[in-house]
Amino acid sequence: MWEYTDKVKDHFLNPRNVGVIDDADGTGEVGSLACGDALKLTFKLDDNGKINDAKFQTFGCASAIASSSALTEMLKGMTLEEAEKITNDDIAAYLGGLPKEKMHCSVMGRDALEKAIVCYRGEPEKKIEGEIVCECFGVTDLEIERVIKENGLIAIEDVTDYIKAGGGCGNCHEKIQMTLDTIMGKDMSEKKKAVKLTNIQKIKLIEETLEREIKPGLKQDGGNIELVDVDGDRVFVKLLGTCAGCSISQVTLKDYVEKKLREFVAPDLVVEEVKS
Amino acid sequence: MNIIYLDNNATTQVAPEVLEEMLPYFSEFYGNPSSMYNFAGQTAHKLEEARSKVASLLGASSEEIVFTSCGTESDNTAIQTAILSNPDKKHIITTRVEHPAVKNMGEYLSGKGYRVTSVPVDSKGRLDLDYLYKNLSDDTAIVSVMWANNETGVIFPIEEIAQAVKEKGIVFHTDAVQAVGKIPIDVSSTSVDMLSISGHKLHGPKGIGVLYVRKGTKFFPFMIGGHQEGGRRGGTENVASIAGLGKACELAAAHMEEENTRVKALRDRLESELLKRIPNAKINGDTDNRLPNTTSIGFDYVEGESILLMMNELGICASSGSACTSGSLEPSHVLRAMGVPFTAAHGSIRFSLSVYNTEKDIDVVIEKLPPIIQRLREMSPFCEAGNLKLET
Lengths: 276, 392
Description:
The complex is a heterodimer of chains A (276) and B (392).
Chain A: H1 6-13, E1 26-32, E2 37-45, E3 51-59, H2 62-75, H3 80-84, H4 88-94, H5 103-121, E4 132-134, E5 139-140, H6 141-151, H7 156-163, H8 173-183, H9 188-194, H10 199-220, E6 223-231, E7 234-241, H11 249-264, E8 270-273
Parallel strand pairs in A: 7-8
Antiparallel strand pairs in A: 1-2, 2-3, 4-5, 6-7
Chain B: E1 4-5, H1 16-22, H2 38-58, E2 65-68, H3 71-85, E3 91-95, H4 100-111, E4 115-119, H5 129-135, E5 140-144, H6 158-167, E6 171-175, E7 194-198, E8 209-213, H7 228-231, H8 239-277, E9 281-283, E10 294-299, H9 304-312, E11 316-317, E12 319-320, H10 333-337, H11 342-345, E13 348-352, H12 359-379, E14 383-384, E15 387-388
Parallel strand pairs in B: 1-11, 3-4, 3-5, 5-6, 6-7
Antiparallel strand pairs in B: 2-8, 7-8, 9-10, 10-13, 12-13, 14-15
Helix pairs in contact in B: 1-8, 2-8, 3-4, 8-12, 9-12
């Protein structure tokens, strides 16, 4: 059961402005049946350039209907310049907040509004910009970047809640994480590069990273790892437990252990396995 | 508000007789069944009485009944024990429509290096048996197939599958959480090795389950501890809930005929009237092999959560295969495995009845649901003046 605010419930049970304006000045359509929600927004301007009517049609859950209804109420009386400034957060705030998992409903409202304004101005329909990252929901890298920046998101689940990306098969999680890391400036290797480590410092840092970042993950799968030696940038390790006989141990070594060590210790490290 | 409860595959009302049976074991008879004195002997006696009632509903013998904490624990135990008993075998077979208790266990094991075969279903939710049989091999440690599906109610030919699996000497488990108490089951006449039950699905309390383990089946406990349950499940017995479950099984046996006649008739009326009154609605699943209490109906071009919340305003309780209700973004894995189109999957509602439902309950839903669907469709951009733009 979702914890919807009374305002969400009210706008869902008694939606305002349902329908289509026949001679609309601007129309914006977003979403699809496959995605599980879709919104068609139309608005009409008065002689002073203010929105005097806005209507919506929505296929979707209670919060999608409530967000659409709220948006049409907010729009009335606004100039297009004012309307342009409405963010998804404003829509959520108008409703007294939305459950985190439902923030994408407010983003859908904002997207439809943008499209409707573009439509009115006669600007060519913006092509999907950027490169599709999430195949399941057709979300691009630029859209993901935007939602992260605008809402200060920090985790993949947040991105999924806001724009659905990553909510299907999960194949794009790595790319989303990279985008998050870049935006949060979490590129640790850059910082580490500046400091020249002594051998002792390097070994200590490698051991710390193994303990903190790497071993817990391996242990979850019944495996473990041991540092054998360090020679310049070459790190020699022994895989233990289930990791030892695992057919994908080389992947573990390169994609996981080496990546983490490069991130937290030094960017030039090469991890090599010592077989017992 | 009067509640019209049509979500009995999610959980059920504890039968008043069950509650009455349980209460003394919270107050008067609190002895530990393992203790030596007469005072505790009363609880030990109750435990065995309940065990024999459960066994009787299943056609099993008492020593084949292991009490657990829930259906999920029973499912997990069955799969783990089969794997531990067959350490050289690295393959398991299950289906694409299992409950998460089995499905996610399979995914977990797949991460541990096991090969997991998930048998597909057709558009009516029927298993591809040839696919299952083709994949049986010397490397297969266990086959786990649910007896009946929780979302569609489709019943699988468990007797036949168990027989084929057994002929290859492979362990067979069935998650019968939805089937027990709704359709007659007699394990003694099948080749089923292990079978899971959950108390709260048959008017028993939550927090109690059973794993039936056929005599002679190799077994390693999942919960390691004391000697309880013949060393097969550590932990002091949940006496009150076990007593309640025993009673619930006794009642289920007594209500079996009613379930398959009166309740089935209620379900059939609900279903046919809704289909008659609501255009672009379809039943999900094989109507020839279905639990008597369950119907899953897909309403095109509406979203399930919206339907549920509008019904909620009228006190009607049901569930949906829609994405939005679960917090996930994709519709249920069962409907997707069946290839139900997105148009219908997002708007699928499951009604699951029980012996406590009345004709009046059904009347209310038949009257109230059509205008809800109509209203939501009128709100949808896929409709024009209330008419669907697209035909399926």
